[in-house]
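Quick one: structure for this chain?
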Amino acid sequence: MENILITGATGNIGREILHFFILNPSQKLFIATRQIDSTKENEVFFDFENIDKTIQSIKETQINTIFLLRPPQIADTDKYFKPLIEKLEATSVKHIVFLSVQGAEEISFIPHAKIEKLLKESAEKGKQKGVMSYTFIRPSYFMQNLTTTLKKDLEETNKIYLPAGKAKFLWIDAQDIGKAIASVLSNTENHKNKAYTITGTESELLNFEEVTKILTEELHKQFVYKSPNLISFFIKKKKEGEKTAFIFVLIMLHFAPRFQKPPKISDDFEKLTGEKPNSLREFIKREMNEQN
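Got it. Here's what it folds into:
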């Protein structure tokens, strides 16, 4: 029996994994929880702030495979991920599917790249023992940013306000990321120590001005895009009550691409699922029409 643990099960990606994952008779699914006294049979305690208890719970449940993601508030990989991965090596866990980001292999300073490095090192150590292989899922820019991070500006001002200039982003639906991960989890043996980049097609390589045009057409109201300088952006977001760390994350995600080549399109999603990824127009019709 393979026992699979899904972390972040209530988030955008976790929900989609649970929706698309079809258990085979030799698998059992568990959900991560931070409720230390949970009595639900399918819940396993998992908290980066309490690694010892987390490891104890994983051992008790004999988890073999973990879908792992990085909570946005946790950036110190040495403090949280390094001890977790080292201690997992002494458990029944044989495989970790890690949600990374597109280009992590080329941007060594971001937390996702550091976590990938830790998992690779663990896999190298474990070759002789046959433990702790990995699969990296590297998605491009989430369509769900329109309904989460950018939602307030869109609803209150009909505007996207980001320092992204004319940089193009490769948009992908979290639904499709969940499908790809569900496919990997259905048979991890075929995906040991591999990395998959999950992106939209060429038609989803769009800058934010192009995105506002699509929003205007699909939602039948006028949307505009404004790209401020960094100081104006920082001041505005601070006045809105955003934390400084989060503002810097927004800047890193949206300002840096102005000086980089457009992201590369990958067909890994189609290889894993046999399907074409959703378009941004499909996403807007499905998710945003309901909100307007």
